[in-house]
Amino acid sequence: MTANQFAEKTYLKFSKIEGNQHIATEYALKCALRLICDFRLNNVLEVGIGIGCIADAVLTYSPQIHYTATEANDYCLNAVKKNVTQIESVKLYSDLNQIPENTFFDFIIIDGSDDALAQVKRMCGPKTIVFIEGGRALQVAFLKELFPKALHAEMVCDYKNPDCGPFSPQVWCGGGQLIFPYPDFKMKCYFFKEKLATYLKRKKRKWYS
């Protein structure tokens, strides 16, 4: 099964679960899995695991990944234990302040709010990649201020939400925001590729609107 097929299967699964109005979009799941594959990412932090949609997709597709997450909401904490097949592999903390010093991640997924978001800076190494699910303009602006040399590209979709999910099939499927805090040559090339892809997809969306 391909990464995209895993994303589609996970989205279908979580579309039938209580609380599905807060899950990641299908395309956001595809973006996260694509980044994991393209950069061979192994150590993941998810800020705001919610009911577990992204975590389940990632750990089902790559069960060898080391997964850490934060979540403070009691409802989500109870739900995620039922929804994520490999939940025993997840290190859960209530917020970023609780994650021990000298802990570094090569992939940070932001899928919720955290008053201690500035803590991600100490958790980033030279190869770290950040993916923000959805728009979250304030978080994007905050991270770009936190990492002045960062490169940021939108990851947008050129198809509308699937009929099976909680989001309107009349609306373009949402993606996310890709941030390279310390971009190297490969990251810069990837950035330009995503910028071009976004430009072309927006042209397509405008044409079909």
From TrEMBL:
<dbReference type="InterPro" id="IPR007848">
    <property type="entry name" value="Small_mtfrase_dom"/>
</dbReference>
<keyword id="KW-0489">Methyltransferase</keyword>
<feature type="domain" description="Methyltransferase small">
    <location>
        <begin position="42"/>
        <end position="110"/>
    </location>
</feature>
<keyword id="KW-0808">Transferase</keyword>
<dbReference type="InterPro" id="IPR029063">
    <property type="entry name" value="SAM-dependent_MTases_sf"/>
</dbReference>
<protein>
    <recommendedName>
        <fullName>Methyltransferase small domain-containing protein</fullName>
    </recommendedName>
</protein>
<dbReference type="Pfam" id="PF05175">
    <property type="entry name" value="MTS"/>
</dbReference>
<keyword id="KW-0949">S-adenosyl-L-methionine</keyword>
